[in-house]
C-alpha cells in the first residue's frame, strides 16, 4: 500500500487510490492529441522465447494512446530478425524494429566508431542509445517511456503510470523514474539495490558528508529500475553509459542537466519480477559481480567530477563503512521480510555483501588506474554535429531492413 510521504529532494508520485486503469488511459488518449507518446523496448532475441515477452505483447495490444513502439533487437541473426518482425507484427501500433546486428546499422555504427562516437562494446546502453536516435529521427513522439522486456509480472498499468507524469501537459516533469517493491513468489529480491546501492550511499555520506548528489541518488526508492520516461528534448543531451552503470548514469545525467523540480519518481507496480542474474562471485566479468563494479565505478566517477578527491585510503574507508552498514541493513531486511511473511536467506545476503565489499575496492582501483576512462556514449547532439545526416541514414536503414526482411504482404 502506498503512502503520501515525500522523502529526499525529488517528487514522489504514489499509488494512493487504486485508480481504475481505464480512467487513466482515457486521460492519456486526450494527452496524446497534444503530446504524442512512444515506447522504447530494448531486447535480446532470446527474450522473445521466454514467457515474459508474449505476455508483454498481449498487454501492449490493448494500449490505445501510443503513436509508436520502437524495439531495439540485439543478438539476432537474419533468420531471427525475420521471425522478430513477424512476432512484433501482432502489435496494432506503428512498430519499428531496429536490427542492431544487421549490416545496415552496423555500417552506420562503424562510421561513428571511426570518430569514437559509438560504444565499442554491445549491450543494453548501446541498444537504448540507437533507439533514442531513431526516435529523434522520427520526430513524432514528445513523451517517451522505456521498460525492460523480461518483466514476468507485466501489466499495461505499469506503462500508463510510468508515462503519465511526462505526458500530462499540466505537469512540468522532463524525466520520471519508476519504482516498485522487489518482492515475488514469497521472496524479497533486488539484492544489488538493497545490499549495494543503499548502504554504499549511506557510507559515502558518512565519509564525505551530505553532498547534494548523494542526497539526490538516495531520494530514489529504486534507483536501479530499468523503467523510466522522459520528454523528447532529454534525448539530445543525454550521455548514456554503455555498461551496467546505465541506470545510475542516466540519473546522474539528469542531475547534471535539469532542475530537481523537473524530475520525479512514480509507483508503477505492486508486484514486480524479472529475470534474475547470478551472483557470479568467482567471475567479476559477469552477473551481479560485474554489475556491482560498474555501478560503483559510475558513482565514483560522478563524485570525482563534483570535486571529491579519491585515493586508496578513501576507498578502504568507504569499504569498511559500507560493510558495517550493509550488515545492519540485512537485519532490517530480515525483520521486514518476516513481518510480511517473506523468505530471506541471511547467509546468501551476507555472501552478497562480502562480494560487493570486495568489488568496491576493485572499482576504486580500476578508477585510479584509468581515471580518464569514459564509458559514456556521446550525446546525439554531438553525433549530429559531426554527421548531420546520421539520423536520416538511421531512419532509412531501419525502413530498408523492415521492407527487405518483413513478412510477405
Automatic annotation (TrEMBL):
Gene3D superfamilies per record: Spore Coat Polysaccharide Biosynthesis Protein SpsA, Chain A (3.90.550.10)
Annotated keywords: Transferase
Annotated protein name in UniProt: Glycosyl transferase
Molecular function as annotated in GO: transferase activity
Top-rank lineage group of the source organism: Bacteria
Amino acid at each position: 500500500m502506498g503512502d503520501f510521504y515525500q522523502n529526499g529532494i525529488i517528487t514522489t508520485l504514489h499509488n494512493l487510490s487504486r485508480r481504475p486503469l481505464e480512467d487513466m488511459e482515457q486521460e492519456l488518449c486526450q494527452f496524446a492529441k497534444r503530446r504524442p507518446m512512444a515506447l522504447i523496448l530494448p531486447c535480446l532475441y532470446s527474450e522473445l522465447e521466454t514467457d515474459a515477452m508474449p505476455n508483454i505483447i498481449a498487454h501492449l495490444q490493448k494500449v490505445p494512446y501510443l503513436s509508436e513502439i520502437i524495439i531495439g533487437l540485439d543478438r539476432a541473426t537474419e533468420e531471427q530478425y525475420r521471425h522478430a518482425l513477424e512476432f512484433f507484427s501482432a502489435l496494432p501500433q506503428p512498430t519499428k524494429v531496429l536490427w542492431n546486428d544487421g549490416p545496415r546499422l552496423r555500417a552506420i555504427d562503424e562510421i561513428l566508431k571511426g570518430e569514437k562516437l559509438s560504444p565499442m562494446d554491445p549491450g543494453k546502453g548501446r541498444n537504448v542509445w540507437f533507439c533514442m536516435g531513431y526516435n529523434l529521427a522520427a520526430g513524432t513522439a514528445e513523451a517517451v517511456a522505456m521498460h525492460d522486456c523480461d518483466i514476468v509480472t507485466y501489466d499495461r498499468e505499469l506503462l500508463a503510470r510510468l508515462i503519465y507524469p511526462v505526458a500530462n501537459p499540466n505537469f512540468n516533469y522532463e524525466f520520471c523514474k519508476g519504482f516498485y517493491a522487489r518482492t515475488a513468489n514469497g521472496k524479497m529480491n533486488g539484492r544489488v539495490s538493497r545490499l549495494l546501492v543503499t548502504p554504499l550511499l549511506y557510507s559515502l555520506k558518512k565519509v564525505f558528508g551530505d553532498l547534494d548528489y548523494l542526497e539526490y541518488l538516495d531520494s530514489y526508492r529504486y534507483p536501479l529500475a530499468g523503467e523510466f520516461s522522459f520528454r523528447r528534448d532529454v534525448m539530445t543531451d543525454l550521455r548514456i553509459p554503455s555498461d551496467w552503470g546505465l541506470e545510475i548514469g542516466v540519473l546522474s545525467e539528469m542531475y547534471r542537466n535539469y532542475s530537481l523540480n523537473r524530475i520525479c519518481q512514480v509507483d508503477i507496480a505492486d508486484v514486480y519480477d524479472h529475470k534474475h542474474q547470478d551472483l557470479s562471485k568467482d567471475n567479476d566479468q559477469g552477473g551481479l559481480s560485474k554489475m556491482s563494479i560498474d555501478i560503483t565505478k559510475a558513482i565514483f566517477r560522478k563524485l570525482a567530477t563534483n570535486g571529491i578527491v579519491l585515493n586508496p585510503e578513501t576507498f578502504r574507508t568507504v569499504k569498511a563503512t559500507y560493510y558495517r552498514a550493509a550488515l545492519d541493513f540485512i537485519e532490517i531486511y530480515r525483520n521486514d521480510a518476516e513481518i510480511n511473511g517473506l523468505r530471506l536467506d541471511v547467509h546468501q545476503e551476507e555472501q552478497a555483501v562480502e562480494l560487493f565489499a570486495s568489488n568496491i575496492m576493485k572499482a576504486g582501483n580500476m578508477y585510479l588506474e584509468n581515471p580518464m576512462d569514459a564509458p559514456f556514449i556521446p550525446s546525439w547532439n554531438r553525433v549530429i554535429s559531426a554527421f548531420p545526416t546520421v539520423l536520416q541514414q538511421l531512419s532509412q536503414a531501419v525502413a530498408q531492413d523492415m521492407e527487405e526482411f518483413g513478412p510477405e504482404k
